[in-house]
Amino acid sequence: MTTHETSPRLKRRADAERNIEAVLDAARISLSRDPDASIGEIAKAAGIGRVTLYGHFPTRADLVSEVMRRALAQAEQALEQIDLAGDPREALRRLVAGSWSLTADAGALLTAAEQALPAEDVHAAHDGLFAHVTTLITRGCSEGVFRTDLPPSWLVSVLHSIVHCAASEVAAGRVRKEDAANYIATTALSAFTPPAAISRA
To answer: Global pTM?
Structure first.
């Protein structure tokens, strides 16, 4: 096979890869601004036609799923760089501070995912993120810093809910983005404090 024969094929492949990246970038921006953004709007933002977009992502759910997967993978990479050693309370603050900006940017995107995908798929996509948080909260419980009358899995869900509540408040303009991390961590730590410690306060 000659270079002349393969070059057109390589060019088509490179064009397709550029189109896919353009679609994913446009979809993330569009869905972050409006969880109900249509395929037509996303295609226009990507600078391609609807037919081309559907050639890469047969359904809107396929596109939303891939955008969510990438966003969560980026957030998970960020979490892996955060030092979660030492006092679990301070580690929780570092975790929230280090991942909040990604979470805030993806707040509406996750709303789009929840609307377009089965709940079990959305939850499964969070498994990597939940693993880091679960490990930290479980350690906090075992060290007596976090409450043990509720299971760690519930405390993880509480933190997840607080984060998404904060994302909604930031989007609505009721909370400044730069204040959100402190609000999230303070609210979570209050909820995680053992009842006995509250009684002594």
So the answer is: 0.70
